[in-house]
Amino acid sequence: MVARPLSFVIEPHRVLDPCAHCDVRSVSVCSAIDDRDLNRLAEMAEVVNVESGRTFIDEGEKADAFFNITAGTARLYKLLPDGRRQITGFAGVGHFLGLAVSATYAFSAEAVDAVRVCRFSRPRLRRLLEDFPAMEQRLLDVAANELVAAQEQMLLLGRKTARERLASFLVARSAGSTPCGPNQARLHLPMGRGDIADYLGLTIETVSRTLTRLKSEKLIEIPTTTDIVIRDRDGLEALAGGLN
Amino acid sequence: MVARPLSFVIEPHRVLDPCAHCDVRSVSVCSAIDDRDLNRLAEMAEVVNVESGRTFIDEGEKADAFFNITAGTARLYKLLPDGRRQITGFAGVGHFLGLAVSATYAFSAEAVDAVRVCRFSRPRLRRLLEDFPAMEQRLLDVAANELVAAQEQMLLLGRKTARERLASFLVARSAGSTPCGPNQARLHLPMGRGDIADYLGLTIETVSRTLTRLKSEKLIEIPTTTDIVIRDRDGLEALAGGLN
DNA sequence: CGTTATCTTGACGTACATCAAATGTCGTGG
DNA sequence: CCACGACATTTGATGTACGTCAAGATAACG
Prior knowledge:
- 2 copies of one chain form a homodimer.
- With 244 residues, the first copy, chain A, is of the alpha+beta class.
- Chain A contains 7 helices and 12 strands.
- In chain A, a hairpin with a 5-residue loop joins strand 5 (74-79) and strand 6 (85-91).
- In chain A, helix 4 (162-174) packs across helix 6, helix 4 crosses helix 7 and helix 5 (193-200) packs across helix 6 (204-216).
- The termini of chain A are far apart.
- The A-B interface holds A 76, 78, 80-82, 84-86, 88, 99-102, 106-107, 129-130, 133, 136-137, 139-141, 143-148, 150-155, 157-160, 198, 200-201, 241-243 and B 76, 78, 80-82, 84-86, 88, 99-102, 106-107, 129-130, 133, 136-137, 139-141, 143-148, 150-155, 157-160, 198, 200-201, 241-243.
């Protein structure tokens, strides 16, 4: 596979008023725009498909666009010169990316699986925001929520044990997943162990060992590497919160 | 020292139009409000003095106010039930606090030294924001900047060594401090070793040891425990960035 | 100028990292 | 369908950076 300058496929709009038919709008910042103004949003949006593993935001590059994820999951990360990586978050459907004041991106983003994004040019979105304060307010809410999540993650990275980190990760992921029985849930992990490790500030080996330990303690089951069943949600939550 | 329900002193405004004479306005979000509208801001602001060590925001409590720091430094932190503490940031003059969507505060805030804050009731500030989109935009910028800082801190907590953490901390603190010679700077640390430890995800002992090591390596000097001189800013920055 | 909190230094322990190998998973082609 | 190779995950043996426990040394304070 050869790296090419333009590494993703751009799909020109084929339908009229694509935003009106967007099934992701309800969970994204776009819901702040009224139905009758959707065409203004649509004409500046560009649908981009990013295949698994491809980078679509590069830390340090000129930040000329915002992104809204409409399918798949992306990992957001920062690197140290020697290759150490910290994943700062996983961005799923409805997630808004690129909220930077600076002229360059502060992080990189890569597709974990097949990702589709709506791409907005920065200056055009800026202008849109001036006309639609509701959208700006919505963005402020999003940013405030991310800030809260970031603080929670700092607590995890700075003060929790490996076991507590994994428990926290699974509990957080289980929010909005299919509950299968009382005190239980089944969840799918699109990212590999390496991603989980770099998200939790651990190594692959420690993640693996800790998961098998949680399994032996009957807190979880691991039917496949990418699917995990929470057997004892309360126990896991207690662990995540620092008890035990 | 007995804890009392109302643990800080409220100073009623004595001057007319206090915001107009506020020497902190230029570095705070309040600068987004036009001179002629300042009275609207002033009538909802309340100056509060918080003495050293006092808590003025309690994680989990009802979030009924925003704060703007006008003097001193506060530590923002989260606790685990067994007492483990992670300081998520130090808030200095001009810093805006309380940007939470949720009904309760996501963190606690304590005065490191003597702190003075402007306190705004939440509903009233919300109404003000509706009338002044410039203020809202300013808040969005603030939030975006904090998000960038939070991601940087996640990289620090998840992937940097103790030596790199201290170097990063000192370099970050030296931004905007008095430069005393080329490649040098003098900086004051209002917080103790325990605060630094809880901010960097380390223990007091490791912070102390690492500082003395940086001193022995001629990267810094430690004239007093609360004042540090950076002798080799480039070396410290390289270390902070993960080189060496 | 004692008293107490904070900081530093030392000796030792441990949770997690590192290194290494075995096992499992999945796509590809015979 | 099965054999093969590439890669991800698990498991094991060992190392180490940082934590813990315990004194001293400084600094802060009445």
